[in-house]
């Protein structure tokens, strides 16, 4: 099983960025947390972070035929990007949406998720653990699918 973990804009600033909302752990520690879990389960994992919408679209397209599942936190593009939604629909790879913060309790403009419309599951407000839950969900989902 091969999983691609995509993180959108400003998530490279974890640890520095609004620690009251996103915590004090860094992007590097998020990567090692997910890597450790995937290693323990024999799952191949690749990470991609970009601040650019088109680069995320390109990466999703390149995932076609390569990855079995996608975990995606599109960050601010969640609430704006029809292009990321369309890319997820185009490749039709089972995708799980993650948000570190409880977006449902935040500003009105965070209440819409375009990418989420192409995802089989969403985890919000669980901190970094949301990514682990997303991988676990995909493990189960992909195993049942085969
Ligand atoms: C976020 C929530 C988004 O609204 C925000 O723009 C982010 C991070 C989260 O993980 O909680 O950058 O996706």
Structural topology:
Blueprint: E1 2-7, H1 19-22, H2 27-41, E2 44-49, H3 53-62, E3 69-73, H4 82-91, E4 95-99, E5 121-124, H5 129-145
Parallel strand pairs: 1-2, 1-3, 3-4, 4-5
The chain binds 1,3,4-trihydroxy-5-OXO-cyclohexanecarboxylic acid.
Short description:
The chain has helices at 19-22, 27-41, 53-62, 82-91, 129-145, and strands at 2-7, 44-49, 69-73, 95-99, 121-124. With 146 residues, it is of the alpha/beta class.
Task: Going across the biggest sheet, name each strand in turn.
Answer: 2-1-3-4-5
Percent range of helical residues: 25-40%
Q: What sequence of helices (H) and strands (E) makes up the elements?
A: EHHEHEHEEH
Mean pLDDT: 97
Number of helices: 5
Protein structure class: alpha/beta
Largest sheet: 5 strands, parallel
User: Which assembly state applies to the chains in this document?
Assistant: single chain
Catalogue the unreliable spans.
none
What ions, cofactors and ligands are bound? 1,3,4-trihydroxy-5-OXO-cyclohexanecarboxylic acid
* DSSP strand content: 15-25%
Structural features, described:
- The chain has 146 residues and is α/β, with parallel strands linked by helices.
- The protein is 38% helix and 18% strand.
- The model has no long low-confidence stretch (mean pLDDT 97).
- The chain binds 1,3,4-trihydroxy-5-OXO-cyclohexanecarboxylic acid.
Observed structural traits:
binds 1,3,4-trihydroxy-5-OXO-cyclohexanecarboxylic acid; 5-stranded parallel β-sheet; 18% strand; 146 residues; 5 strands; single chain; alpha/beta
